[in-house]
Amino acid sequence: MRKKTKMIHSGITMDQKTGALSVPIYQVSTYKQDRAGEHRGYEYSRTGNPTRHALETIIAELEGGKAGFAFGSGMAAITSVMMMLDANDHIIVTDDIYGGSYRLMTNILNRYHIHHNFVNTTKLEEVEANIKDNTKAIFIETPTNPLLKVTDIQAMARIAKKHNLLLIVDNTFATPYLQQPLELGADIVLHSATKYIGGHSDVVAGLVVVKTEEHANRLHYIQNAVGAILGPQDAWLLMRGIKTLALRMEAIEGNTRKIASFLESHKDIKHLYYPGLKHHPGHEIAKTQAAGFGGMLSFDVGSGEKADKILQKVKFFTLAESLGAVESLISLPAKMTHASIPKERRAQLGISDGLLRLSVGIEDVEDLLEDLQSALE
Ligand SMILES: Cc1ncc(COP(=O)(O)O)c(C=O)c1O
To answer: Which of 166-175, 244-253, 265-274 has the lowest average pLDDT?
Structure first.
């Protein structure tokens, strides 16, 4: 099955009983047992729900893994995966990571003695240098939020294998349509499905896919024990979103390339971060490990004041947190998604007060270009 067909025909695509072409929303918490302890596959919806199961089956197939798991948010997914670690374990984390993941590492997991080092994972020698006796995992985001840094997944997998570490990849920006980390050697792939997978700014969700049966059993145990599950209505919305993921990603990518080339030649742009540009340091790796460069780009206009003016002027780029939807969004990471990262740390990473991030949607690109042009004036 080719990729576009997979988006439509993967997993459980219909109701076997009625032939309905959409999986029903099983709005249910519990299930009748035929005898005590004898059930028909479902006993309680925290443990398993048929609508959630259909979604979990689809995402497992799309990512090429053993099993999928759906959570109430991307952060619930990441937290549940981190629960696979034990106290006193150490994890290497991409330095330019989503602010919420940074907050989880620095303010929550540290209290349970799960230690971390933020490392520039685009530099293999830095990753190797940070491996300690108690290191158990490498957690990368690629491309990153908001600087679009690209980490070489295959190289990370080689390091992880050599040191017997888990390789966990946040694939939110790339989506399973463009990038499949498990095929490149990762052990676990996860998503904020709130973004491209949902695609319509109407659901908050997280998805995880694992490669082995052992990890599937462990994560299912955690999902059931911790209970951060996705509800059936939201699971249904994600399945609906997946059906158009290929079309949306292609339209989004086409628009993003045009916007990137417009911004690249604009005199007021100090830095433009987009892996599709030839001079982007991760361009060659992105080309080999993904089928496209995605729909996210960031650019520095030099000051917070200037960025603010642009935010006030744009019409078709809505000022909002989040990304990956059909409508174009604009944000100021330093004050929004990455406000939980201390200012000095943001400065070190290059997340300046004048850095704007675009999530390009599927509008007519001419309207988007005109909008940016007049806002930049
Ligand atoms: C790359 C990345 N990972 C994880 C998350 C967290 O996902 P959620 O907001 O669904 O909890 C986000 C949210 O913006 C994100 O951008």
So the answer is: 265-274
Report CA(143)–ligand 1 centroid distance (Å): 13
28 and 84 share one domain? yes
Closest C-alpha among 80, 83, 189 to residue 139: 189
My answer on whether 215 and 327 are in the same domain is no
Nearest CA to ligand 1 atom 3: 192
pLDDT value for 338: 87
DSSP 3-state of 136:
strand
Structural domain of residue 67, as residue ranges?
3-243
d(CA 67, CA 97) in angstroms, rounded, equals 25
Rounded distance from Cα 173 to ligand 1 centre (Å):
9
| Cα 92 to Cα 126: distance, rounded to the nearest angstrom | 10
Could you tell me if 254 and 277 lie in one domain? yes
Q: Which helix (DSSP H) or strand (DSSP E) does residue 56 occupy? A: helix 50-63
Rounded to whole angstroms, the Cα distance separating 326 from 339 reads 25
**Of 97, 148, 117, which is closest to residue 337 (Cα–Cα)?**
97
pTM to 2 decimal places = 0.97
Q: CB of 78 within 8 A of CB of 116?
A: no
Mean pLDDT across the chain: 96
Averaged pLDDT for residues 60-72: 98
Q: Which residue has the tokens 């939201």?
A: 234
Domain stop point among 212, 243, 274: 243
